[in-house]
Every structure is written in structure tokens, then in C-alpha cells.
Design brief:
alpha/beta; Rossmann fold; five-stranded parallel sheet; 8 helices; 5 strands; about 10% strand; globular; binds P1-(5'-adenosyl)P5-(5'-thymidyl)pentaphosphate
Length: about 220
């Protein structure tokens, strides 16, 4: 796979209710102000086929989805997203902002489901080759706060939790811990934002990080 490109690849991560949607908007507006063309995507999803896989993963099915099937579905959707959305956009010089990417698989399928890091790494190598985000924003929120936000939103919109949102608190605690461990391990790429704060304060943190981490792209 040829990975040469002159775009910027940013992923946004965090547990349910961390505030990824508003962070995506803040990052998009910040980059647009710099005159950069933006492609936004999400995982699972981002292309027609990947969105169909998303439906399969998140909906409630009569048949139980085995955790290895779930892992493979996330990577199948990601492969479509990489080849038909992310790489073409990066090669055309766009900034790609992804609502979740590879770190979500380690956090949820390793931390949450208990699949080994080695198993996930094999699929990571196969599907991503050497593609990785230039910057990953980890919106870190306590499980209690994240879940309370999700509950409020669901009540307002009269929505039922999806298949993964209905997991127990322990599951999300393990997911959050795995995200934090990855942030420590890959501290050159993953930056933690304290997402327990007000939206205004979260946005301030984001803008500071973007100025610091992306200055090299605008230094010419
Ligand atoms: N998954 C995904 C895996 O298991 N493995 C993988 O490899 C991948 C890619 C995807 C699901 O799949 C799993 C993870 C997920 O369970 P999703 O829709 O992408 O689903 O992810 P969700 O986390 O479910 O998305 P949410 O919409 O629930 O989370 P967000 O985007 O973080 O939430 P957001 O921004 O809409 O905020 C939620 C509510 O909180 C409020 C917002 O206004 C909103 O009402 N809020 C705040 N309120 C006060 N202060 C703040 N700072 C706030 N920030 C947000």
C-alpha cells in the first residue's frame, strides 16, 4: 500500500458521551479557518458499505454477535473507510477528521471484550499497514458523567441505547482505562483532553492542542 500523502489525519476518541460530536465541529472549524479542505468520517462507517456494516454492528439482533465476528466487522468497515474515503482524501491534501479510528478497537475490543492486543495488532497490520493518525484527541470523561450525558440525550430524543451502549458500567470503565493506557504508550500521538469540563472549556483545550500540535503544517 502506498501511504505517501500530504494531508493531515486527526482522529477523535473517547467513551460514550465524551463529546466527540462537538469536538469534531470545533476541529473542523479551526482547520477551515486556516483554509484547509476537510473530509470528515466516522467509524464504524464513512462509506456506503461501511455504514451498512455499522448498522449490523450496532443494531439489536436476534442472533448473538460473537466477539471475534464483531472485531472482524469493525476491521471490514475500516478497510472500506481507509481505501474509499481516508486515503483518497489524504492524497488530495485534505485534512481528514475521523470520529473514532484504530484506538477504539483496542479500547473496546481489547479493554472491553478482552481480546488480546496481539490478535488485534495482526489485523491492524493487515488493514492499516502503516497508516496512523498524525494526531489523536482523546476526550477523557468519567464513566458516570459520560453515561449521564448519554441518558439525558436519549431521553430528550426518545432513543433506545444501541447494542454497545447497553453494556454494563464495568465494560466502559475497562474501555476508558485502555484508552488512557494507550495515551501513555503513544504520548507523541495521543493527547488527552479533560472532557468532564464545560463545552466552552473543552473547546479552549482543543484549540490550544491544535495550535501546538499542528503548527508545523502551517509554518511555511
Ligand atoms: N466501537 C467503535 C468499537 O467497539 N470498536 C471500534 O473499533 C469502533 C470504531 C460506535 C460504537 O462502536 C464502538 C464504540 C461505540 O460504542 P458511535 O456512535 O460512534 O458508536 O459512538 P458513541 O460513543 O456511541 O457516540 P456518542 O454520540 O454517544 O458519543 P459522543 O459523540 O462523544 O457524544 P456527543 O458529543 O453527542 O455528546 C453526548 C451528549 O453529551 C453532551 C452533548 O451535548 C450530547 O447531548 N455533551 C456535554 N454536556 C456537557 N458538557 C460537555 N463538555 C459535553 N460534551 C458533550
Amino acid at each position: 500500500m502506498q501511504l505517501t500523502h500530504n494531508g493531515i489525519f486527526i482522529s477523535v476518541e473517547g467513551i460514550e458521551g465524551a463529546g466527540k460530536s462537538s469536538a469534531m465541529l470545533t476541529i473542523t472549524n479551526w482547520l477551515k479557518d486556516k483554509g484547509i479542505s476537510i473530509t470528515t468520517t466516522r467509524e464504524p462507517g464513512g462509506t456506503k458499505i461501511a455504514e451498512e456494516i455499522r448498522q449490523l454492528i450496532l443494531s439489536h439482533n436476534e442472533e448473538n454477535i460473537h466477539f471475534i465476528t464483531e472485531l472482524l466487522l469493525f476491521f471490514a468497515a475500516r478497510s472500506q473507510n481507509i481505501h474509499n474515503c481516508i486515503l483518497p482524501a489524504l492524497k488530495s491534501g485534505n485534512a481528514v477528521i475521523a470520529d473514532r479510528f484504530i484506538d477504539a478497537t483496542f479500547a473496546y475490543q481489547q479493554g472491553g471484550r478482552g481480546i488480546s492486543e496481539e490478535t488485534i495488532s495482526i489485523l491492524e497490520k493487515l488493514v492499516l499497514n502503516d497508516l496512523k493518525p498524525d494526531l489523536t484527541i482523546l476526550l477523557d470523561v468519567t464513566v458516570d458523567t459520560g453515561m449521564a450525558r448519554i441518558k439525558n440525550r436519549a431521553e430528550l430524543n426518545k432513543q433506545q441505547p444501541d447494542r454497545i451502549e447497553q453494556e454494563k458500567l464495568d465494560f466502559f470503565t475497562n474501555v476508558r482505562n485502555c484508552y488512557l493506557q494507550r495515551a501513555e504508550k503513544f504520548n507523541d500521538r495521543i493527547v488527552i483532553v479533560d472532557a468532564n469540563q464545560s463545552l466552552q472549556d473543552v473547546n479552549k483545550q482543543l484549540e490550544t492542542i491544535l495550535s501546538k500540535k499542528l503548527s508545523k503544517y502551517f509554518a511555511k
